[in-house]
Amino acid sequence: MRRPLSLAQQLFALQLAVIALLVIAGSLLAYFDSKRISEAAAERRVLVLASALAELAEVRDALASDDPAAQLQPLASTLVAATGSDFIVFMAPDRTRFSHPDEALIGQPYIGSIDAALAGGVVTEKYEGTLGPSVRAVVPIRPATEGSAEITALVSIGILQQQLGREVRERVPVLLGTAGGALLIAAGGTLLISRRLSRQTLGLGPAEITRMYEQHDAVLHAVREGLLIVDIRGRLILANDEAQRLLGLPGSAENRPVSELGLDEPMTLLLTSGEPVSDRLIVFHDRVLVVNTEIARKDSRTLGTVTTLRDHTELETLTGELDSARGFAEALRAQAHESANRLHTVVTMIELGQPEKAVEFATVELQAAQQLTDRVLGAVDEPALAALLLSKAAQAHEKGVELVISEDTAVTVQDVSPRDLVTIVGNLVDNAIDAAVAAPPPRRVSVSAITGEDAFVLTVTDTGRGVDSQHIDDIFTRGWSTKTAEAPHGRGLGLALVKQILAKYSGTIDVEVNGGTVFTVRLPASRGDR
């Protein structure tokens, strides 16, 4: 099947047709205007000539003679040749001709209008006489006596329409040449515009462009990933529904500079850097986003960047919970192994005939574990937080770190979601345990959580080497870490999540380096209308 004309080809054909019609219409208007101007000029010319002849003394003398026709006919012939007119007719007031190009018509009545001339005025008209259609003027001839109103004769001078048409036709080649030149120039300009449009539309036709737009629009609205297109000037060209939802963009965000969209600095820098990015985790407000950026190029020209966003918040939360569960399971396995060793020890002591020492050994271990459980459950009303602290104590013990829950710990139910509370405490305690493990003995992590009248205060202290005071502000930035990237989701994410959650609840976090590192979190007791 023959491929339909592209949009550029259709536009070229339509523009060429419109230009051709305009040129033709303009040429016709110019032709008829030229004809009208020629006729108007002829009217003025014959009127001026007739008025001048009416004042000639030779004409008056001939009219006063016994045979006016004998004298006026030669004079008229001479004047016709001299003035370039087609006829000069002198006549009596009763229309009797004294002269005519056809001498056979001398003495015959003049054909045409003379009433205005007989009344003392002049006549200019287009009239078809004995010689054919003509433009003529009729002027009265008066005696030489000054102030005389008598009309002794009339003079008519005319130019045939045939002569006027010949003059107009002589201008037609110039007119056609001008019209043809204009048409060629316009066609050339239209061709250049069409070629440019063809490159911009990739040679597609209107139906193809419409179908492609509908398909792309449907895909952009249906895709579950955020899609952003930013040009080389840092201006947002496109943002689909998911991108607007994830970043909280207004509906008028498109065609505006990214720096004016109210995004935080890390996200703004990432979108405007023009550098490719692969699966980078970004903490944006209360979301964890996976960002990929590719550079868009066309014919070796850089057009901008295409960025995709995936909401990784739920997955990151589940990953953290899975890490905690895995650590808890490992701690349980270690405890089970250790319990088995203790049980074998007790059994062996009994077999050796020392039951009293066996009971003492078993009771001491049981009391230590039960005391920690009782103290945590008694001090912490939130079950999720209590379970978290117990599991972290087991993990710390397995790693050779002593996790100390302060005696003043007392936590009542907070106006904070359990998941957010677990994220805050879990990340801080995990970081503290890792810091303590990396430092020489004694390895200890202390946790204090107190619910006061105005705020919930959490303090996590470790015996690690501490954070360089120059990097205290950097530790809350996504990607910054003193540890190697062992986790599948990378390092440097936990504290960034803590910072984002605290911002949501209008909380604060302070860092103090004193041998180890002390993190102090304050959360308002009530969020009010938030």
Automatic annotation (TrEMBL):
One of its GO terms (molecular function) is ATP binding. Its EC number is 2.7.13.3. InterPro entries: HATPase_C_sf (IPR036890), HATPase_dom (IPR003594), His_kinase_dom (IPR005467), PAS (IPR000014), PAS-like_dom_sf (IPR035965), sCache_3 (IPR033463), Sensor-like_sf (IPR029151), Sig_transdc_His_kin-like_C (IPR004358). The chain crosses the membrane at residues 12-32, 172-193. Residues 212-249 form the PAS domain. SMART domains: HATPase_c. Keywords: ATP-binding, Cell membrane, Kinase, Membrane, Nucleotide-binding, Phosphoprotein, Transferase, Transmembrane, Transmembrane helix, Two-component regulatory system. It is found in: Cell membrane. It is a multi-pass membrane protein. Pfam families: HATPase_c (PF02518), PAS_8 (PF13188), sCache_3_2 (PF17203). It catalyses: ATP + protein L-histidine = ADP + protein N-phospho-L-histidine. Gene3D superfamilies: Histidine kinase-like ATPase, C-terminal domain, PAS domain. Residues 334-527 form the Histidine kinase domain. GO terms for cellular component: plasma membrane. This is histidine kinase. The lineage of its organism: Bacteria, Bacillati, Actinomycetota, Actinomycetes, Mycobacteriales.
